[in-house]
Amino acid sequence: MAGSDLIRPPGSAEDWTVPQDWASYTPDEHAMWDTLFARQAEMLPSRVVPAFMDGLDILRMSRPGIPDFDELSDRLMKATGWQVVAVPGLVPDEVFFDHLANRRFVAGRFIRTPEQIDYLQEPDIFHDVFGHVPLLAHPVFADYMQAYGEGGLRAAKLGMIKQLARLYWYTVEFGLIRDGDALKLYGAGIVSSFGESRFALDDPSPNRIGFDLQRVMRTDYRIDDYQQTYFVIDSFEDLLRQTLETDFAPIYASLADATDLKTDDVLADDVVFTHGTQAYAHSRLESAA
Ligand SMILES: [Fe+2]
What we know:
By secondary structure, this protein is α/β, with parallel strands linked by helices. It has helices spanning 27-43, 50-58, 69-80, 93-101, 125-136, 139-158, 161-173, 188-191, 194-202, 213-217, 236-245, 248-257, 279-288; strands at residues 2-3, 83-87, 91-92, 104-108, 176-179, 182-185, 207-210, 229-233, 272-274. The protein contains 13 helices and nine strands. The structure holds fe (ii) ion.
């Protein structure tokens, strides 16, 4: 995860990484990983893109306990040339992009407490590693993540990080993918969440709209609750191809003058899989009022 105006914590390296210090995890922390893992592993097989389950196998992630990043990186390096490195928390955008561009995924070290089992504000190791790392063993998705990092470094120079961050959000974090006539999950924010793994596919509330690069980069997103819109890609190959073949500079130029789209907008030329009722989002607004 990336942010701005951050100060590098003492003890971290120039590139903001720190040792994972795997030996310091307590039995309770390993048990929390196992609880979260068992819950998702039971629910996901029929819901998630098959490449995710393949990644869990390739990386031997079903072994009990919090994964050791060195072992995980050895397996990942053999599969796709990626590594997992630990960081103490949020890192600056350009540090984050530079790691991705060099096929390094930055992950938090801490794990949520039992009180935070269903909601926490900052991503923990379960989100970062269970959610993100299995798909890094898929060669095409792995290339997409690198391409995103390279695009991020260019966007930073053009002052367009906000727009590019929406691409990450609506694909890497909250993306859906077509599987024949069905939809499947692949975004890490969904697959690491017990509630959103069901909501994103089954609930009539959110919109599910065909992926369009420029449309996505105009669309605001929710950071405080389930998404009001999910975007559906055809395949990882198509997502990578669009990202590599698109010249982002003219898109950024047109986006600079365009109004942002709201989190629940549906446009006349959207490819609509579900026009959501937004009943969930409205009920949350009412209960907060
Ligand atoms: Fe994430």
